[in-house]
Amino acid sequence: MHTPVLFDEVISALRPRAGGRYLDATVGGGGHTAGLLSASHPDGRVLGTDADATAIDRATERLRPFGARVSLRQAWLDQAPGLARELGFVPLNGALVDLGLSSNQLDDPQRGFSFMRDGPLDMRFDTTRGLPASELINQSDVESLKELLRDYGEVERARQVAEAIWAARPIHTTAQLREAINGVARSRGRIHPATQVFQALRIAVNDELWRLSKALPQLIDVLAPAGRLAVITFHSLEDRIVKRAFRDASLERDDQPGFGEPVWLSAQGPGVSAGSAQVRLVNKKPIEPSETEVAANPRARSAKLRVVEKVG
């Protein structure tokens, strides 16, 4: 069964209570969702969404004991806030975004997410639409591949890796891609050299960073006063987007005509008027998993949790 990352920290941050309304916008294996439902007993409600239909099917079985208190829908991250409105969950007392892949996704060779297992190079969360990673590679030129690897994977020697991939086309499987970059892609610390290449392709195939940037302000907007948004990221690109969005939403803008550029004031400290600030930062530095959790679940090692609370 999929082990949810930073489980205790998420439940503590979101403070589920009876009668509350919550959104798990990346339901995955359903572990966090089950925690929110248990902690909001007897009448808290949770809307769980995921772009992956298989994840919704698995979560439906796991969460069946909670009955009508949980609603599950297939939806992309940036669609989840609008769906919460439609289904009467707004204003939300809490929302969660966990940007990690579930164990079910990584362990299924037919999904193509892992370079450790040979299978079709797909990587789509929603397998009914969009281009699989293999088609993206086979239709791209070297320059496009280089930019993709550099911008979405921060791959070192991105041009050389792109040229190796381009020369090995057509590529249809994870093993073919792994072989193409073997000896060309460089490892970064303990990270396997294929990790960042696969990450870059997955992000591109699913428009992940664009969807995240679009979703964050919407999620803040649908929170009730004192409602909290928690986001778990797994690499620096995601974390920078979340950090910037939370910072911008936590500042009040003081427009003074005739006095130059607008002044941005922190709304973090006690006694500071929130003004037009939408949120306050619950944790200025990200919460990271304990050594005990990493030892039990090595996939949690790069996780970072950031939390904001709605003001007003």
What can you see in these coordinates?
The chain has 312 residues and is of the alpha/beta class. It has 2 domains: 7-98 and 209-310, Vaccinia Virus protein VP39 (Rossmann fold, 3-Layer(aba) Sandwich); 112-206, DNA polymerase, domain 1 (Orthogonal Bundle), CATH 1.10.150. It contains 13 helices and 9 strands. The strands form 2 sheets. It has a 7-stranded mixed beta sheet with strand order 3-2-1-4-5-9-8, with helices on both faces. Helix 1 (7-14) packs across helix 2 (31-39).
**Alpha-carbon Rg, integer:** 21 Å
Number of domains as seen in the coordinates:
2
- CATH H level, superfamily name of the largest domain: Vaccinia Virus protein VP39
Helix content: 25-40%
The strand order across the widest sheet is 3-2-1-4-5-9-8
| Tally of alpha and pi helices | 13
Secondary-structure content class: alpha/beta
Largest sheet: 7 strands, mixed
Q: If you consult CATH, what is the topology of the largest domain? A: Rossmann fold
The number of distinct β-strands equals 9
Distance between the termini: 40 Å
Order of helices and strands: HEHEHEHEHHHHHHHEHEEEHE
Uncertain spans: 254-274
Instruction: Name the average pLDDT.
Output: 92
